[in-house]
Each structure stands twice: as C-alpha cells, then as structure tokens.
C-alpha cells in the first residue's frame, strides 16, 4: 500500500501571532515556521503503517515556498521515503491545494492519502473533503483510530460526544484528529539520512492547475483584550456583585 501525506508549512503553534498594522493578514517576517501539527500526526500514522509492513512507501508532498522543503525534510526524517515540493509564493486556498493534490494522486496512484484535519493558520478544514470529492473517493474524517483489513480500512472517528466507526474501501482519504497518535521526534541519524532522500520540485503550472484565489480577505483583527479581573473580600461580596451584575 502506497501512502501520500500532504504537509503544510505554517507559523509554529507556540508563536504569538501578530496582526499586520494594515489588518490585511498576519506578520510572517522573522517568525518561526513549522509543520502543521495535524500533519505531524498524519506522517506518524503513515510511518507506523510502514513499520507494521502495511504500507510499502510513504510519499510526502507540500505546496508552498522554497522553505516548505524544510517541512518535507522533517517528514522524511520522521520516516517518509521521498518528497514532492510544488513550489509557489502565492497563498493557495484549500480548493487549489485539493486540485493540485488530485493531480499528484493521478500521477502517484497512492492507495491512501492521510491529510491533517485542518491547517492551524487558515483553520479551513476543507482540503481533505474537497480532495475526496474531486477524486470521488471515500473519506474518513477526524480519525481517532485506523485499522486496515484486506482491501478496506476501518476508521474510528471523533464525533460530538463519542466515537463513530466506519468502513471504507481503498483507495481512500483520511483526515486525522489530535488523538490518533503521538508523533515522534526525528533522531539525529534519521535527520542525517533524510538529507539524502529525494525531493522532486514542481510548479502548479506543471499540473495545469489554476491556483488563483476565490476569496478576498477583507480584514484580520486581534481577539478583543480581556478585561482585568477583580478580587473580592468574601463570598457575601461575591454574591452581591453577581446579583448586581444580573448573573444570578
Ligand atoms: P485546511 O483545509 O487548509 O484546514 O488544511 C487541511 C490539511 O490539508 C492540512 O492539514 C494538510 O494536510 C493539507 N494541506 C493544506 N494546505 C496544504 C499545503 N499548502 N501543502 C500541503 N498540504 C496542505
């Protein structure tokens, strides 16, 4: 089974994001960038499938600027076999990403695509679903557990207040949720080995895909600043204040 794993380069989740003064977006200058955390979970799952002898090859793909190559390298150091960088300096919306991934799927013919449930920069949660629709493949979203049996895949999904188990015929698309696994840290020898792994370089035009945006960002704003709290002397004062505020 061949597995394709798309990984996105995003602002590191530990960074406090700053909105640009003109409110057109967020400031990316001198900001630490990393692999989208959900994509680390996808890579981990694909590598575990390979280690278990279920997957034969794990191909990593990223759409982004030249530096997205570092993100691919990280995935290769975790155990991916080879990479594909589709290089662009434009912002590519989920539909554009899904169309490019559909072309990569046509070329690479994977049996399984493991996608993050959402990118933490745009919070779209769209790419996997759009890719499934474009390919007309079954999808198991918000995966909590994956099990392959024969030509099908049993996916336990995180749904409101519980879990749902579905069975999909391969080839299929999976989008991963937070609790599927705990991604490994790449060891130094594996980081060194990853330097020698192949990364093919492509452009959106090579696939004949139009990535021009469909949306215009009107404004990006910071969340409202929280008001300072107040300490009260005793419970009686607290109750009286809550009554005055109409809370109780
Ligand atoms: P989104 O729909 O933007 O929230 O992204 C969901 C998932 O799609 C991510 O976790 C990635 O697996 C994949 N994805 C989105 N954008 C890209 C990109 N530029 N390159 C590679 N994968 C991407």
Strand order of the largest sheet: 9-8-7-10-6-1-4-5-11
Q: CATH top level?
A: Alpha Beta
Structural class: alpha/beta
Mean pLDDT: 96
CATH architecture classification name:
3-Layer(aba) Sandwich
Total helical elements: 6
N-to-C series of helices and strands: EEEHEHEHEHEEEEHEH
Number of strands: 11
Distinct bound molecules: adenosine monophosphate
Report Rg.
21 Å
What is the count of distinct domains?
1
Q: Label the overall shape.
A: globular
Q: Per CATH, what is the topology?
A: Rossmann fold
CATH superfamily: HUPs
Question: Main sheet?
Answer: 9 strands, mixed
Distance between the termini: 60 Å
Instruction: Work out the helicity level.
Output: 25-40%
Task: Explain this structure.
With 248 residues, the chain is an alpha/beta fold. The protein has one domain (2-244): HUPs (Rossmann fold). Helices cover 27% and strands 27% of the residues. The chain has six helices and eleven strands. It has helices spanning 37-51, 68-78, 94-108, 127-135, 188-194, 235-244, and strands at residues 2-6, 9-11, 33-35, 57-64, 82-87, 112-116, 139-149, 152-159, 162-169, 172-176, 199-202. The chain has a nine-stranded mixed sheet, with helices on both faces. Strands 2-3 form a two-stranded antiparallel sheet. Strand 4, helix 2 and strand 5 (82-87) form a beta-alpha-beta unit. It is globular and about 70 Å long. It starts with a strand and ends with a helix. The mean pLDDT is 96. It binds adenosine monophosphate. Residues 6-8, 36, 38-39, 62-64, 92, 94, 97, 115-116, 118-119, 122, 124-128 line the site of adenosine monophosphate (AMP). Residues 6-8, 36, 38-39, 62-64, 92, 94, 97, 115-116, 118-119, 122, 124-128 line the site of adenosine monophosphate.
